[in-house]
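Worked example 2:
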Amino acid sequence: MPLSVADKIEIQELVARYNRAIDSGDIEGWVDTFLPDGVFEGLVVPTFRGHDELRAFATAFWTEPEYAEWRGAQHWTTNMIIDGEGDRATLFAYHIMFTPAGPGANPALMCAYNDEIHRVNGTWKFARRRVVEFP
């Protein structure tokens, strides 16, 4: 059965929760957007698998000097294309990350997402989130 409009809205909200959590330092909220064995494949960071590695990355993002320039950034995701059926979906979207710059912001990263999303126990989660170069 094709995805319903409600499914697509729930997936869009998953993306919004992901963005808000990582941007605000809500480490557990960010980890919770992934399945327990979920994978994050970064463009400027390595690949992380499973909640333990995801949590370690999100913690480092908010504490380690190597990520200091990205803290306080905002993830903006747009032009979503959501396809799928049943409990499986794919998402393609453009992404721009803005970093703080005085009273304004700088676009620091332009890329795209190619995601695999699964519904488990009635909730959509990332099975695999791939950050790819801007097409």
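The mean pLDDT is 94. The two ends are 30 Å apart (CA to CA).
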